[in-house]
Amino acid sequence: MTDPMEAVNAAMEAEFRLLDPAVRLSPTRMAELLHPDYRGCGTSGRIRDRDAIIEALASRDVSAQRPVTASRMQGTQLAPDVVHLTFDTETGAHRAHRSSLWRLTDEGWLLYFHQGTRCGGE
């Protein structure tokens, strides 16, 4: 069985890589971190699969990329191969509560599901 602290730390490291603008603009680097069955619900409410989110992020203008600040990240290992992370992000004036499910595969920890919910400054 995977050590819970190691599993949570590995998922957090992978989450921080996904928040890096250089990774978000690279379809190859994004694909390395997303599970083949990935689904996500963004703060807009739009549901995207793996290919759609990679395409959407890679098509953004480099000059429009803003740094993403993450805070209050915490995690729980739900099963030997599943970690749940919750955290908040801020990009300019845009704030969101976020929840991610990471699955351990032969390739390492991959993002399986993500949801973002817009929030105020609470």
Strand arrangement across the biggest beta sheet: 2-1-6-5-4-3
Number-wise, the strands total 6
Oligomerization state of this entry?
single chain
The helix-and-strand class reads alpha+beta
- Give the strand content: over 45%
Low-confidence stretches: none
Overall mean pLDDT score? 90
Shape: globular
What does the radius of gyration come to?
14 Å
N-to-C series of helices and strands: HHHEEHEEEE
Question: What fraction, in percent, of the residue positions are helical?
Answer: 25-40%
Biggest beta sheet attributes: 6 strands, mixed
Tally of DSSP helical segments: 4
Distance between the termini: 37 Å
Question: What's this, in brief?
Answer:
The protein is an alpha+beta fold.
Describe this protein's structure:
By secondary structure, the protein is an alpha+beta fold. The protein is built from 4 helices and 6 strands; from the N terminus they run H-H-H-E-E-H-E-E-E-E. Strands 2-1-6-5-4-3 form a 6-stranded mixed beta sheet. The longest helix has 16 residues.
